[in-house]
């Protein structure tokens, strides 16, 4: 079959590498299309892709230029207005309170965000005003950037463009240039928590969502987007768990990571410092509660890929014969944060085997609950405040809008105070089906099933 398609994949950050380039999407695409990758990340982030998929692809490192001041002002004002609108729509104050933070790194930034808030208050009184100023933000996109990308796209001649998530406003000039050239564009919604956050910062012809739940959210938060442009295709990040060839024998995995194969393993998955600033205390509490069981149990600690801080060091030293740290295999030598980090391919297999061989996972509201549910393993959510903190509380965390997807399901188990950790964990180990009994029904609500078809769904849509 002649190759008459040319797919341009734009990856704003490293998470897209794991979710899209490490998955089978490329395998489906390469049979019928040429593939080009654009990204702010260096070429080193993509070297493995050639070997994994036996693929030659074009690559270009792009520099995302800052928005013009007026465009950014309008965009942030719209974001604030949408957050207020969404807060009222869902009667959930956390939508605004946890997603609007005035940048304080400079006087100019503080001024811009304060002005955006003032303008946003005006816009939120009338939804058509929000749409009007959203259009103004796009109209004030740098003409030089649009001209540059128009020239680049004319030379490249892709048949379609896929942006692996919707949050980076610096990609809007590419979308405008593509529209002017009649090149079809699509973007994926990054995660199950993203739509209420008012950060749909690129406008494309199609929007790929995980599930009917997310499509309904799109209709609520962006009623102006025609429903036929919103495609329920799933997400490829969980389909790795369907590949049994990735699984290692328990003894082999134990030897690789210094684990005792005779013990029950439980996973404590860390959060980023913003979500869980006292995560190290949670880990200490879990270890303290279970240390009397260390002849039977081992704790495996997997930190958040963007948190290689020293905050866990003390508890890891204290319990060095009980907690085994297995760090994510990510490149961390670039800039700080999600934007600059990117995963190595071996991290996929490591995480799959971690989930397969552990009895359960403990964390604060993490998506790892979905990962474990794919293997029908329970997740225990920590649901108490480990220290007094007037700026943070688990009550706020679990009020986030995306947790509404759990309503009506016994989706996770709950550790409601430090004193119940041991009892809850041991109960989940002994009778895993007695806790979070409807975990698999819950993930069918938020991720399209069958999960192992999601890469194929996305590839077909792009082709």
Write the CATH fold name of the largest domain: Rossmann fold
CATH architecture of the largest domain: 3-Layer(aba) Sandwich
In terms of per-residue confidence, which ranges show pLDDT below 50 for 5 or more consecutive residues? none
CATH superfamily of the largest domain: Glycogen Phosphorylase B
Spatial sequence of strands, sheet with the most strands: 3-2-1-4-5-6-7
Q: What fraction strand?
A: 5-15%
The major β-sheet equals: 7 strands, parallel
Indicate the CATH class of the largest domain.
Answer: Alpha Beta
Give the tally of structural domains. Answer: 3
| Global morphology | globular
Give the helix/strand class.
alpha/beta
Radius of gyration, taken over Cα atoms and rounded to an integer in Å? 23 Å
How widely separated are the two ends? 14 Å
- The count of DSSP E runs of length 2 or more, i.e. the number of strands, is 15
Helix content estimate: 25-40%
What do you see in this structure?
It is a single chain. By secondary structure, this protein is of the alpha/beta class. The protein folds into three domains: 166 residues, Rossmann fold (3-Layer(aba) Sandwich); 71 residues; 203 residues, Glycogen Phosphorylase B (Rossmann fold, 3-Layer(aba) Sandwich), CATH 3.40.50. Helix content is 40%, strand content 14%. The chain is built from 19 helices and 15 strands. Strands 3-2-1-4-5-6-7 form a seven-stranded parallel beta sheet. Strands 10-9-8-13-14-15 form a six-stranded parallel beta sheet, with helices on both faces. Strands 11-12 form a two-stranded antiparallel sheet. Strand 6, helix 10 and strand 7 form a beta-alpha-beta unit. The radius of gyration is 23 Å and the shape is globular. The mean pLDDT is 95.
């Amino acid at each position: 079959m002649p190759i008459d398609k040319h797919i341009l994949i734009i990856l704003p950050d490293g998470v897209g590498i794991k979710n899209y380039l490490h998955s089978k999407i490329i395998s489906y695409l390469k049979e019928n299309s040429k593939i080009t990758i654009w990204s702010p990340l260096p070429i080193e982030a993509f070297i493995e892709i050639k070997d994994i998929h036996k693929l030659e692809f074009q690559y270009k490192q792009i520099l995302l230029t800052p928005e013009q001041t007026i465009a950014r002002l309008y965009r942030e004002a719209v974001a604030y207005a949408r957050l207020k609108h969404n807060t009222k729509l869902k009667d959930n104050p956390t939508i605004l309170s946890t997603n609007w933070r005035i940048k304080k790194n400079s006087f100019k930034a503080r001024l811009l965000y304060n002005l955006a808030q003032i303008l946003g208050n005006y816009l939120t009184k009338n939804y058509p005003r929000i749409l009007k100023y959203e259009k103004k933000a796009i109209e004030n996109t740098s003409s030089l950037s649009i001209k540059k990308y128009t020239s680049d796209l004319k030379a490249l001649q892709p048949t379609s463009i896929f942006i692996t998530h919707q949050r980076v406003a610096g990609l809007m000039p590419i979308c405008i240039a593509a529209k002017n050239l009649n090149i079809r564009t699509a973007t994926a919604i990054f995660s199950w928590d993203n739509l209420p956050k008012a950060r749909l910062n690129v406008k494309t012809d199609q929007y790929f969502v995980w599930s009917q739940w997310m499509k309904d959210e799109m209709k609520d938060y962006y009623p102006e987007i025609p429903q036929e442009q919103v495609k329920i295709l799933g997400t490829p990040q969980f389909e790795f768990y369907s590949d049994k060839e990735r699984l290692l024998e328990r003894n082999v995995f134990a030897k690789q990571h210094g684990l005792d194969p005779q013990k029950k393993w439980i996973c404590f998955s860390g959060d980023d410092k913003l979500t869980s600033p006292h995560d190290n205390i949670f880990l200490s509490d879990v270890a303290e509660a279970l240390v009397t069981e260390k002849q039977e149990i081992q704790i495996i600690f997997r930190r958040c890929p963007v948190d290689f801080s020293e905050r866990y060091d003390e508890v890891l030293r204290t319990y060095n014969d009980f907690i085994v740290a297995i760090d994510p295999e990510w490149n961390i030598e670039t800039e700080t944060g999600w934007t600059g980090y990117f995963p190595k391919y071996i991290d996929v297999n490591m995480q799959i085997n971690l989930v397969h061989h552990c009895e359960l996972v403990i964390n604060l509201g993490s998506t790892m609950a979905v990962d474990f549910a794919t293997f029908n393993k329970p997740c225990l959510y920590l649901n108490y405040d480990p220290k007094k903190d007037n700026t943070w509380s688990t009550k706020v965390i679990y009020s986030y809008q995306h947790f509404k997807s759990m309503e009506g399901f016994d989706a996770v188990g709950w550790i409601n105070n430090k004193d119940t950790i041991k009892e809850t964990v041991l109960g989940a180990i002994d009778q895993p089906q007695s806790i979070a009994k409807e975990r698999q029904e819950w993930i069918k609500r938020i991720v399209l099933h069958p999960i192992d078809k999601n890469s194929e769904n996305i590839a077909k849509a792009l082709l």
